[in-house]
Amino acid sequence: MRSLKLLLFLTPIFLLAFSSSAQEYDFFYFVQQWPRSFCNTNQGCCYPTYGKPPSDFGIHGLWPNYNNSSYPTYCDPNNTFDINEVQGLVFSLRAKWPSLKCPRSDSSRFWQLQWMKHGTCSVLSQSDYFSAALQLKAVTNILQCLQLAGIWPDDRRYTTLTSVVSAIQNCVGHTIYVQCNRDIRGRHQLYQVYICVNQTGTGLIDCPVFPTRTCPSSFRFPKF
Ligand SMILES: *[C@@H]1O[C@H](CO)[C@@H](O)[C@H](O)[C@H]1NC(C)=O
Ligand SMILES: *[C@@H]1O[C@H](CO)[C@@H](O)[C@H](O)[C@H]1NC(C)=O
Ligand SMILES: *[C@@H]1O[C@H](CO)[C@@H](O)[C@H](O)[C@H]1NC(C)=O
Ligand SMILES: *[C@@H]1O[C@H](CO)[C@@H](O)[C@H](O)[C@H]1NC(C)=O
């Protein structure tokens, strides 16, 4: 009982401390995922209630990160996700930021999680955060970058890490990071692409640091 009282007493101070530190990140990772590689794994996937997503990379998130590789999360529990704040963006979000998690949903829980876990640590308002992500998606057309370099989703051929990385880097003009996972048969495949963005979410930058897990020298890029 006493500790509960203490907890209640401390909570507002705690939250204040968190929200005041919310802006001290160094850059964003803008992460896009290849839907087929999310789906053909042990965990499987479910398409949204409004239909199968486009055959394109989808947004996973826009994540504040520190130069030292660590990152802040859940910076302001009071700044709850409000779908009304992004009402004008829902049509685009459904297509560009679809949830593939089961059970199938209208994707709003995915946006909510991304906002609470990552968005609240940024300097952006909800509408600015989701607009920034959509804008970044529009200026970084990864699928087109790959296709311009002759790399297409293909269920039989393997592609190489060097060709994928250089195709995307030549196209976006900055260093990027490619992440693989394994399909249900254990084969490595292209899963996510990380592009780095400055603190305001508006300018692409070279990545100050890369996550650790990377791809083998060749892997699949399966059709979706
Ligand atoms: C990384 O940097 C941030 C911000 O400067 C700091 O709060 C955090 O403790 C650092 N983390 C590590 C693992 O050094
Ligand atoms: C968070 O919400 C609680 C409950 O509504 C409120 O008492 C508290 O003052 C809020 N804290 C901040 C930092 O806004
Ligand atoms: C981010 O990039 C944009 C576009 O290049 C630029 O206008 C803005 O000043 C940059 N912001 C920061 C904080 O670097
Ligand atoms: C983080 O790294 C970027 C690029 O390497 C650098 O411009 C920036 O000053 C660094 N920020 C801090 C707080 O060290």
Automatic annotation (TrEMBL):
Any one cellular-component term (Gene Ontology): extracellular region
GO molecular function: hydrolase activity; ribonuclease T2 activity; RNA binding
Entries under SUPFAM superfamilies matching the protein: Ribonuclease Rh-like
Matching InterPro entries: Ribonuclease_T2_eukaryotic (IPR033697), RNase_T2-like (IPR001568), RNase_T2-like_sf (IPR036430), RNase_T2_His_AS_1 (IPR018188)
Signal peptide: 1-22
UniProt keyword list: Disulfide bond, Endonuclease, Hydrolase, Lyase, Nuclease, Signal
One Pfam family recorded for the sequence: Ribonuclease_T2
Name of the protein this chain belongs to: Uncharacterized protein
